[in-house]
From TrEMBL:
<dbReference type="InterPro" id="IPR019606">
    <property type="entry name" value="GerMN"/>
</dbReference>
<dbReference type="Pfam" id="PF10646">
    <property type="entry name" value="Germane"/>
</dbReference>
<feature type="domain" description="GerMN">
    <location>
        <begin position="249"/>
        <end position="338"/>
    </location>
</feature>
<feature type="domain" description="GerMN">
    <location>
        <begin position="97"/>
        <end position="188"/>
    </location>
</feature>
<protein>
    <submittedName>
        <fullName>Germination protein M</fullName>
    </submittedName>
</protein>
């Protein structure tokens, strides 16, 4: 485990981060259908045939649609080998699952959009032959044979990236894989089991360091900070905690304070002597955390680091039923953000993570 003092990221070298309030990370795409929509009326220009008019109208419609974009989370691999969400603007389409996968292909349309230090996860020339969504929320993805041309050490990263990219859509819960029409019970290169499908419950960037008996543990997700040049971003990590530890909220906070594993390339802005004063409380989707004054990340009284705040909100809202996080210090809610604004209201998860504005 990294010495926690050396793992701290001095807040002043970071660009300030503002969490955007949102209604949740996973929005279900909805298609709005009109009954008997009004017909468009068009007029021919001088010398223009009816066929030319139709073609010009169709071209203009396609160009207009091509300019419409929507934000999607693509899980890519960073310089440290972690699978990380990056929010990018993709052309609007009805085939959202197929498109998201196509943007994971090396040398594909994502190439010009990749943030510095990141790479796509699927082998070059991989084609998405089809996607099929079952009623139980399982999506079956059929890849071309090129899918199997990845390095052995990338196998779990590829599986995690596919799973977490697709399950950002609210109606997708689990992922199964086919290659050229054939169901796969294991991944093709290193044999990672996938027969019943893979979900977010299988974890991401799994860290089992220090765990002696994994059978008596269960996973939680916590977010640490990484930096590439001037860009900072948040990395989800799966930690295993003992089953006897009943309060997953307190466990996640303690893992954040413990900090990332030594040599991982990740950092934490938590003070080593920060701790909860009493058990977290939960009511109607809101978690309230009461810390000692070591939660403050600077010499300025009542100022909390944006990275501490963001890591807490991202980590805790991964847990079922948690929608917002409120923070007090020794029972008082008089904290201040780095920008000088009072932290007077509970903070919700941003609709998208790592948007480039961090």
């Amino acid at each position: 485990m990294l010495n926690r003092r050396t793992s701290k990221l001095v807040t002043s070298i970071f660009v300030s981060v503002l969490l955007l309030s949102g209604c949740g990370l996973f929005k279900k795409d909805q298609a709005i259908k009109e009954i008997d929509p009004p017909q468009d009326v068009s007029y021919l220009k001088d010398g223009e045939s009816l066929q030319q008019s139709k073609e010009n109208t169709a071209q203009a419609s396609n160009e207009a649609q091509a300019t419409e974009t929507v934000k999607r989370e693509l899980y890519l691999i960073d310089q440290n080998g972690f699978v990380v969400p990056q929010t990018l603007s993709l052309p609007k389409t009805d085939a959202v699952a197929k498109q998201a996968l196509e943007y994971l292909v090396e040398g594909g349309p994502v190439t010009e959009m990749l943030p510095n230090g990141f790479r796509a996860v699927l082998p070059a020339d991989t084609r998405i032959l089809g996607v099929k969504l079952e009623k139980d929320g399982t999506i079956i993805v059929d890849f071309s044979p090129e899918f199997a041309r990845y390095k052995r050490e990338d196998e779990k990263k590829i599986l995690e990236a596919i799973t977490w990219t697709l399950t950002q859509f609210g109606n997708i819960k689990k992922v199964k894989i086919r290659i050229n029409g054939y169901d796969q019970t294991v991944m093709p290169v290193n044999g990672t089991p996938i027969q019943d499908g893979v979900s977010r419950e299988d974890g991401i960037n799994i860290d089992t360091s220090g765990v002696v008996d994994i059978t008596n543990t269960h996973p939680i997700i916590v977010y640490f900070v990484a930096q590439q040049g001037e860009q900072t971003y948040y990395v989800p990590v799966t930690r295993r905690i003992p089953n006897k530890q009943q309060n997953d909220i307190a466990a996640a906070v303690n893992e954040l304070i413990k900090g990332p594993t030594y040599g991982s390339g990740l950092v934490s802005d938590f003070q080593p002597d920060a701790q909860l004063v009493g058990e977290p409380t939960y009511e109607d989707g809101k978690v309230t955390l009461n810390f000692n004054d070591a939660i403050y990340g600077s010499n300025k009284q009542h100022v909390i680091s944006e990275h501490v705040l963001n890591a807490l909100v991202l980590s805790l809202t991964e847990q079922k039923g948690v929608e917002s996080v409120a923070i007090t210090v020794n029972g008082k809610a008089d904290l201040v953000r780095e920008d000088g604004k009072a932290l007077s209201e509970p903070v919700t998860r941003p609709e998208n993570v790592n948007t480039g504005s961090f």
